[in-house]
Design goal:
Strand content: over 45%
Order of helices and strands: EEHEEEEHEEEEHEEEHE
Number of helices: 4
Structural class: mainly beta
Distance between the termini: 6 Å
Number of strands: 14
Helix content: 10-25%
Strand order of the largest sheet: 1-13-10-12-11-14
Number of domains: 2
Length: 186
């Protein structure tokens, strides 16, 4: 299997559950712009992420609200915050790094910070066409001035838009521009 796939950059962001959101904001979550992943959006609302050693301001919430809290950062962000979050699949925040999420209204401290694993979103039909299972490790070949091949995990969901997500550190290392094309293989 070899398949062309669009690459997008996943900058630092967070997902919140309704209980935490209500502690941090008085308004409903509002859409700034839709994302390629069906039903998801970048919200107008942002927060500050705080640890004993650092601060990240204007971290955007990705909606809609979820059943869990999760802060996704790159390793360079983790260094600035003085923490060492695990590399994880989205939604797996067990034993993750502790951060404080703060707004003008309030703050919440929780073990919810991860570095998201490289992944490729796809819906079940696309996964079936490619012979891929959710969680399967695939190869992504990136061409260009700083080419390379990296492992990437399949993330199969009903709303999955076929697209690779790399964090800002990976994207910068390979000189990626959103929309660049990679080759996915087994």
């Amino acid at each position: 299997m070899e398949e062309k796939v669009s690459i997008n950059i996943s900058a630092r962001h967070l997902h919140l559950n309704a209980e935490t959101y209500d502690k941090l904001f008085d308004n409903v979550l509002t859409v700034r712009n839709p994302l390629n992943q069906i039903g998801q959006f970048a919200a107008n609302e942002t927060v500050t992420i705080i640890t004993e050693k650092g601060v990240l301001e204007h971290v955007r919430i990705i909606g809609p609200l979820r059943s869990y809290n999760q802060v996704e950062i790159a390793k360079s962000d983790a260094r600035k915050l003085g923490i060492n979050p695990p590399v994880r699949k989205s939604g797996d925040v067990a034993d993750s790094a502790v951060v404080t999420i703060k707004t003008e209204k309030g703050e919440v401290t929780a073990a919810c910070c991860i570095i998201a694993d490289r992944h490729v979103h796809m819906n079940p039909d696309k996964a079936r066409d490619l012979g891929v299972q959710d969680g399967e490790v695939l190869k992504l070949a990136i061409s260009g001035e700083k080419s390379g091949v990296v492992d990437i995990h399949a993330k199969v969901s009903d709303d999955g838009y076929f697209e690779v997500h790399l964090d800002t550190d990976d994207a910068n290392a390979f000189l990626i521009t959103p929309g660049d094309i990679g080759i996915l293989s087994k």
